[in-house]
Specification:
Radius of gyration: 27 Å
Number of strands: 0
Structural class: mainly alpha
Helix content: over 70%
Largest sheet: none
Number of helices: 13
Distance between the termini: 16 Å
């Protein structure tokens, strides 16, 4: 392609498209002309990109095509209908589609936490490396650190703090997954280590039932959300290694958009977990009642994922945004 000849032949069309885009009002004929020029300019951009790429000209035409697309398709404002669609269709479908990653992650993580707890509880020398004996007794005694932790601050502020910390951990798992998933394993292991230490120290003091009574009400839902985030982050990292039939760029874009939506949805799940931890865990309810609330919340989330999410996934949803919401692409020659 002779770029100078090409520009000379089509410059008038580009200038005309730019003129139409600057007008506030268009007649019917001008609107039809704008659509036609938009389609032609998009084709011109594709031809230049594939045959004679010129950075300056490509940049100008890209901006022109983007402006024209916005004028042709219009802009759409988010509404409560979008929120409802996300909560009942997009988010549960994303979690359901990622189940082959987060379910094994949850099972393996639970096993690791149990093994860590057994190892710490069965080896006094390991416990002594964590803290001095007096400090350990202070943490594990009735009314000690592990019990007062959940009632040491006002319920509302404590719930907000817990929600913020957990949401940050989940977001880290989702974002850092792009680095081949390795940072995700570290974030997950850090959480499991803290859980394992609590299990080990309280079991060595003969108070494991008390510890589980404090952790299970909120921990079931909280850990499930963390496992979902970790599994999704690992899947995102694996996409870089094996994108499947898609190009690596396309696969990463699709999985990345789904992960962003997952972060928003999991923040809502962790908010519910934080409310339970702030108001239910330190409450005066019997242990069985507090655990029952935690189990109910966990079962409700799993039903939400497998019923609504499974239905949406079978209808074709993956958690990615709708095709109409994605960036426009133009064909390029191979």
């Amino acid at each position: 392609m002779d770029l100078d000849v090409f520009v000379t032949a089509h410059r008038a069309e580009w200038d005309r498209l730019d003129t139409l885009l600057r007008r506030r009002r268009l007649t019917g004929a001008e609107a039809d002309e704008l659509v036609t020029l938009y389609q032609r300019t998009a084709t011109h951009l594709s031809q230049i990109q594939s045959s004679a790429p010129d950075p300056q000209l490509t940049g100008r035409l890209s901006q022109l095509v983007a402006r024209a697309r916005s004028a042709v398709t219009g802009t759409r404002r988010a509404s409560w209908r979008d929120v409802t669609h996300f909560l009942t269709y997009g988010f549960p479908a994303a979690v359901y589609c990622a189940r082959h990653w987060w379910v094994p992650t949850a099972l393996l993580s639970t096993l690791v936490a149990a093994l860590l707890g057994w190892w710490i509880g069965a080896h006094p020398e390991v416990q002594s490396s964590i803290a001095a004996p007096d400090e350990l007794r202070e943490m594990t005694r009735p009314g000690g650190g592990y019990e007062t932790y959940y009632s040491s601050h006002p319920a509302a502020s404590f719930a907000a703090q817990v929600w913020t910390n957990n949401a940050q951990a989940a977001a880290l798992c989702l974002v850092l997954g792009v680095f081949l998933g390795l940072p995700v394993i570290w974030v997950l292991f850090t959480n499991l280590l803290n859980l394992g230490i609590g299990i080990g120290l309280m079991s060595s003091a003969g108070r494991l039932d008390t510890f589980l009574g404090l952790v299970l009400p909120h921990g079931l839902l909280e850990l499930t959300a963390v496992f979902v985030a970790a599994g999704t982050g690992l899947r995102l990292g694996w996409t870089l290694i094996d994108p499947g039939p898609r190009t690596r760029r396309t696969a990463l874009a699709e999985e990345g958009r789904a992960a962003v939506g997952m972060a928003i949805g999991l923040a809502l799940v962790l908010f519910i977990s934080g409310v339970i931890e702030g108001f239910v865990t330190p409450s005066g309810l019997p242990t069985w009642a507090r655990i029952a609330i935690g189990i109910t919340a966990e079962l409700a989330f799993l039903a939400y994922v497998y019923v609504l999410g499974g239905r949406a996934a079978r209808a074709g949803a993956t958690g990615d945004v709708d095709a109409t919401e994605r960036s426009a692409t133009v064909p390029t020659a191979a």
